[in-house]
Design goal:
The structure is a homodimer. Chain A is an alpha/beta fold and about 160 residues long. Chain A folds into two domains: about 80 residues, Winged helix-like DNA-binding domain superfamily/Winged helix DNA-binding domain (Arc Repressor Mutant, subunit A, Orthogonal Bundle), CATH 1.10.10; about 60 residues, Dna Ligase, domain 1 (2-Layer Sandwich). Helix content of chain A is about 45%, strand content about 20%. In chain A, helix 2 packs across helix 4. Chain A starts with a helix and ends with a strand. Chains A and B meet through helix 5 and strand 6 of A and helix 5 and strand 6 of B. The structure holds a DNA duplex (25 and 25 nucleotides).
Chain lengths: ~160, ~160
DNA sequence: GTCGGTGCAAAACGTTTGCACCTCG
DNA sequence: CGAGGTGCAAACGTTTTGCACCGAC
């Protein structure tokens, strides 16, 4: 939040109430929110903010490198704060939509290595691994031995799990 | 191409002229094409194919695991064939849009490891590293020592480089 | 007071779908 | 011959934009 404040100040841009509540909402939720999620969340707090403003503010947060844009193939984008915290990646269950976030330094190391080899300079990355979570795999196995197959819908609530450990 | 043919046969779906030219176009180009790119390419060959058909065929190719859907943040999707070849990833220059494809087994290994740790089963992945290619970095450095900064436009032609080696 | 921000509604964009006709097998 | 595919255009959902008014500094 302070980082956003100083980014705006440095860019000679005003900090408005809307910008504040949008950043706070994203920050406090700690989850990957779509623009609609964010609009609903703020409305629930009695803060009415137009979607255009949410898009514009998120785009600022991304420029400031305080937020990340994510695409889990749902047809719209999600955003999450990445304020200073370690760079992390995602595992997405293609059956139930569950997102598990993980952090592994080996990914950062690999990224640095390959960039050096290719002569690139890294700015950011996106690593998403798609597959089945343990519950869905169990469900699929159960179903295939029975005969029926149930393919779950992607979750719409943006539920996230951190790593168990 | 033969793989597509047998996939269709196995699914009891007909192989139409359109499906053939779409798959051939994607195959021969070897690049990451958008639906528009593909429509243009085919039109240039005198093959008129509707975009709806292209979308429907690409979706078949993705189901058959013969193609991959890619998103470089341009606002639309790109597709590329991945017929049997090793799984590869991409480095995208945020300044000129150049895409460099690379293959590193360490990524496959990491993917298997993290999946095992989290109890997931891997189906696919997307690893995209964003940054500046060596030319653009040089350009930025030159510009910043001069005063003006030129930010190039993302290339629209879907140019791809393999690794220089 | 000025520059930029905000909200709304309309536009723009990529993608999907309904439907009449056509084609593969 | 029938199941399915195709093309068009209209529909869809997300994101962007134009504009009149408002608020930060």
């Amino acid at each position: 939040m302070d980082l956003f404040r100083s980014y705006l100040h440095q860019q000679r841009l005003p900090l408005t109430r809307q910008r504040e509540v949008i950043a706070m909402g994203l920050f406090e939720s700690g989850e990957q929110l779509s623009v609609d999620d964010l609009a609903d969340l703020l409305r629930g707090r009695g803060e009415h903010v137009g979607k255009a403003t949410i898009y514009r503010t998120l785009s600022l947060l991304v420029q400031a490198e305080l937020a990340r844009e994510l695409d889990f193939g749902e047809g719209f984008k999600r955003y999450e704060l990445q304020a200073g915290e370690a760079r992390h990646d995602h595992f997405i269950c293609t059956s139930c939509g569950q997102v598990t976030r993980f952090v592994r330094s080996v990914v950062d190391e690999f990224q640095a290595t390959i960039a050096a080899e290719l002569g690139y300079t890294v700015q950011s990355r996106r690593l998403e691994i798609y597959g089945l979570c343990s519950e869905c795999r169990a469900a699929v196995e159960r179903a295939s031995s029975a005969g029926a197959v149930t393919t779950g819908e992607a979750a719409s609530s943006g539920q996230v799990r951190g790593e168990g450990g």
